[in-house]
Amino acid sequence: MATTLPDAQAIEEPSYIDYETFLSPNFAPASFANSLVLATNNPDDSPLDLATPLSRVLFDAQEIDSHIDLLTTRSAVPLLQYTQSQTQASKAIVAQLDAQIASLNDSYKQLEKEVIDKHAEAEEIRQVALRLWETLRLGRAMGRCLQLGRQLQVQFSELGGPSTGKTDYGALVRCSYTILSLREVLDSRAPREEGHGLDKLNAIKNLQDTVIVPIERRITEVSERLIREFAIPSSITFAQSEEARSRLTSAMTALYLLSPSMGIQPDKWSPKLLLQALDTYVRSALQGSTASLSRSLGQLPTLDKSLAEVVAHCQNIASLELILEATETPAHPFFPAPAKKKQHSLTQLLLSRFETSSLISYFWRSMASNISARVQEIASRGGIVARTLRTNKNVVGDAIRQAVVKGGQTPNVFSSGKKKPSVETTWDREIAVMMGSVLNNIGR
């Protein structure tokens, strides 16, 4: 049976202390002290008597202390009984809680055994499965690279060489496409891409060092050499022309495909290797022709030989332009075919590089600008060379005119039926520019 505390009002004796004032929420010690001082002193007194209010406060405190002592003494037994009953009730609650806590602990252990441990085992299995899948992915990617590497070796062996006595320049294109397939895998290094993590495998490193890089370098060198050595003799046969066209087309296609493409937007990409090789070829022909003609102007007996060399260079460039026009832009696996093929053809790319509408026109105009300085130098020096050049002014002019005319004439095997305009009218401007660069600077 619960023990109740004694009623405080039943044992409370009358007291003169105003408890309501002290228990009021608005009670302020400073205000109470001020009112107590004013109640025990005259406001006009000086100094104030603080002994009386202090005694009042001390007496009130003593009265409250006595009252508390009286209450605790009289209510000690009920308080102890109440405390004992509360303690027993707390122990009963704790006993019930212990049983519940023990039950919860048992349930948690069972749950841990059935769920948490199994989840940990499942997590280990998941990690093993992920690593096995990653290993399988790397194995497949590595296997594909090794297979492509072997295919590249076989294709490169098909290229042949002087030692084999047979050369298949079509292997340049096949090797280039295989190299692009390898690039597609090896350059995909982002997470969840096929080539992610391949760069850490020794087999792939060896493949790159011993197969891919050397063969790609060799393909580039052979293609650049074929373009550099491109020449069409005037007496070429149809079979020889087709072979020369095939060699040049294969070389250009290989350089087109192998041009750097990583990190370049499709609309910004251009066949850098091909354009550099063609640029070098045209400028080399122009440089050699300019040097030969410059020497012959100082030694007129060699003029015919030099002009024949210049004509050969020009005809080679003209043949190159015709082959470029007849060659379709290779299909690049990394870049879709442009909507307007004509604007992105090989011919347009090269003409845009030289900022001209015709390679033949560019050849003669560039030579004219280069040769004029040499003629001015000869004229300024004077002497027998300058007099000989002035004396044979008409002969030199006629020889240059004939050279420009012949330079624009490509072998019949490269000429199509659609392109047979009058040579005289076609190159009138180039004839005028070349003759002017020489004759106008000779003087009288």
Automatic annotation (TrEMBL):
Stored InterPro entries: Cog5 (IPR019465), COG5_helical (IPR048485), COG5_N (IPR049176)
Chain ranges of the Conserved oligomeric Golgi complex subunit 5 helical domain: 198-402
Biological process (GO), any one: intra-Golgi vesicle-mediated transport
Compartments in which it is found: Golgi apparatus membrane
Membrane topology: Peripheral membrane protein
PANTHER family for this protein: CONSERVED OLIGOMERIC GOLGI COMPLEX COMPONENT 5, CONSERVED OLIGOMERIC GOLGI COMPLEX SUBUNIT 5
Coiled coil regions in record: 94-128
Pfam families per record: COG5_C, COG5_N
Domain Conserved oligomeric Golgi complex subunit 5 N-terminal: 20-152
Main location: Golgi
The keyword Lipid metabolism is assigned to this record: no
Protein name: Conserved oligomeric Golgi complex subunit 5
Keywords tagged on the record: Coiled coil, Golgi apparatus, Membrane
Position of the signal peptide: none
GO cellular component: Golgi membrane; Golgi transport complex
